[in-house]
Write a structure and sequence with these properties.
Layout: E1 24-30, H1 33-52, E2 56-62, H2 69-79, E3 94-99, E4 102-108, H3 115-120, H4 123-127, E5 131-136, E6 150-156, E7 163-169, H5 172-181, H6 195-200
Parallel strand pairs: 2-5, 2-6, 4-5
Antiparallel strand pairs: 1-7, 3-4, 6-7
Length: 215
């Protein structure tokens, strides 16, 4: 279940200045956690062939505390085949996962404040290899991170279970992934839209904004 939102005033809704130029975007309206799970499953399905070939893919998650970043990551990792408990890396900074054909890492830089830790913990080596890296609070380590392929910004909607989800591509690989996902029913066609997303951008029958282009 989505946690209650606690706005700390710095939700990271915009990409840090050193992120590569964003060249595509897509908006979703999640009516509840079930739609979040559907989106995570669709993304996992699209990522699996790429990651199974040894490629790297990096996803940034932005949003205030309680927006649903960890919830989305758990659904994504579960859809990719992770079994057992999926822990939040809030204190450990990173949780690694080994799958039969790929590796995945879940980072949470909320408490990261020492650049030396980047070297000491071997993060440079992790980001230099293939596999999936999902990063919460990337702005805390912005000067050290390579450009992300996709950025997902989550914001609480007007209802307790509703979330506004904004996807942005930061690399050609991310743009290709985002374009491919547009051909899928993501989420299901009968998913209701909610609040501001319905009013602010054209939304097709899948509950997705049908506008893609430069920011």
């Amino acid at each position: 279940m989505f946690a209650a939102s606690h706005d700390t005033g710095g939700g990271g809704s915009a990409l840090p200045d050193n992120r590569s130029q964003i060249n595509a975007r897509w908006a979703q309206a999640w009516a509840d956690e079930g739609v979040c799970q559907q989106s995570a499953q669709a993304l996992a399905t699209a990522l699996m062939p790429l990651l199974s070939r040894g490629a790297a893919f990096q996803i940034e998650l932005h949003g205030t505390l309680g927006a649903g970043k960890t919830t989305f990551t758990r659904h994504l990792l579960r859809a990719m085949g992770v079994e057992g408990r999926i822990k939040s890396p809030s204190y450990a900074v990173v949780e690694p996962y080994e799958l039969p054909t790929m590796a995945a890492w879940h980072f949470d830089f909320y408490r990261f404040n020492d650049p030396q830790e980047w070297e000491d913990a071997g993060f440079r080596d992790i980001f230099a290899q293939g596999g999936l890296k999902v990063i919460e609070w990337p702005e805390k380590a912005a000067a050290l991170l390579p450009p992300s392929d996709l950025c997902l910004t989550l914001a609480c909607g007007p209802g307790e279970t509703q979330r506004q989800a904004q996807w942005q591509a930061g690399t050609p690989r991310g743009q290709s992934m985002l374009s491919g996902l547009q051909t899928m029913a993501w989420p299901a066609p009968d998913t209701p839209t909610c609040g501001a997303a319905q009013a602010s951008s054209p939304v097709d029958a899948t509950g997705m904004s049908n506008t893609v282009g430069g920011v």
